[in-house]
Amino acid sequence: MKLAGKHIVLGLSGGIACYKAAELARGLVKAGASVQVVMTEAARHFITPVTMQALSGRPVFTDQWDSRISNNMAHIDLTREADAVLIAPCSADVMRKLVHGAADDLLSTLCLARPASLPLLVAPAMNVEMWENPATQRNAAQLRADGVTLLGPVAGEQACGETGLGRMMEPEALLDELDAFFHPKILQGRLLLITAGPTFEPIDPVRGITNLSSGKMGYAIARAARMAGADVTLVSGPTALPPPTGVRLLPVTTARQMHEAVMANVAGQQVFVAVAAVADWRVAEVSSRKIKKQDGATPSLAFEQNPDILAAVAALPSAPYCVGFAAESEDLLEHGAAKRRKKNIPLLVGNIGHQTFGRDDNELVLFDDTGHHLLPRASKEALADRLVAEIATRLAH
Ligand code: CTP
């Protein structure tokens, strides 16, 4: 997360999506950002300043002539410490005002008076016909040309009952976009393929063999790589995680499906990160019917070896830069170094301790041809950022 310590001016204009701005303000504060809310007159018909003040923990400004700012320069004061201005929701009318340089209320005036280097991001929210109207489309194009970042809108069912483009992005997605905005683009334009999560090997229609991988580390790396500007394809076994924003997700169940999906998508990839806890074996004969209990007799299962996906990718004639993971229960330093050599890959990441599954933090050791070094305990998000930086540095050399 790069939002920690950032100061965001959050502008709200009139639209039913104002209810989502409450969640957004909360998310920003939770991510460690400070939030200064500014509301237009129209926004106050949808949500009260009291709500936004309680969530942002700061007085909300709505009026250019607010007496709390002693020099009457609210439009200047409010942006001078800011790292970004985000207008969410941004109505068609506020888009028009931004295009024309209007200065007839606090929000439009502070946008006009903001320092040229202060980024302005807007999340449009309006009825589908309003969004598709040529006038709004002209304004959207002009805003982009002026260097404003448009986040959304997205398609879906609208509060007015119609369906189409015009919904404001969900607060979670907006937080991701804003976070991405602050990330250094160290993998800009790189193609990265990643596996994550467990695999599930069926025994019969209701049973199977799997492992405790939650997918958190792999998803965090996919997200961090995307934040760093990479084009990310994530092949994921079954997890309970929401798909990371802006990442192409290919869901699979078994190791063989994961192998197939990886091999079908590996051409042209520059980096392959194998985080998935792939089942080494599958049940040789999967029963098409549920296996019934039979007078105390226990079934015996025969196994077959699954393909080693990482080894298969590393053996390709024009293999991408391969990063493997290792979960060892003991002697990590010894096994890690040996596994990197055996799999013939430039970088292997070892989990310290095998009880990392499902946790939100982790501690890693990187093995490369110079030896090994430690990435100390941190959240999986922070470690993912570190790892992406390590990959970017190695690619650059
Ligand atoms: N891996 C893979 N395909 C498999 C097994 C593992 O792509 N069939 C990848 C994992 O995603 C991980 C790395 O190989 O990046 C190491 O996995 P691990 O289970 O630790 O190693 P194995 O090669 O299976 O060796 P062992 O289980 O004997 O330790």
Explain what this protein looks like in three dimensions.
By secondary structure, this protein is of the alpha/beta class. It folds into two domains: 7-182, Rossmann fold, CATH 3.40.50; 191-283 and 299-395, CoaB-like (Rossmann fold), CATH 3.40.50. The chain has helices at 18-30, 49-56, 74-80, 92-100, 106-112, 128-132, 134-145, 171-182, 216-227, 255-265, 309-314, 332-343, 380-396, and strands spanning 7-12, 34-39, 84-90, 120-124, 149-150, 154-157, 163-167, 191-196, 201-204, 207-209, 231-236, 248-251, 271-274, 281-283, 303-305, 321-327, 347-351, 361-368, 371-379. The strands form five sheets. Strands 12-11-8-13-16-17-18-19 form an eight-stranded mixed sheet, with helices on both faces. Strands 2-1-3-4-5 form a five-stranded parallel sheet, with helices on both faces. A two-stranded antiparallel sheet has the order 6-7. Helix 1 (18-30) packs across helix 8 (171-182) and helix 4 (92-100) crosses helix 7. The protein binds cytidine-5'-triphosphate (CTP). Residues 195, 255, 274, 276, 278, 280, 306, 308-310, 324-327 line the site of cytidine-5'-triphosphate (CTP).
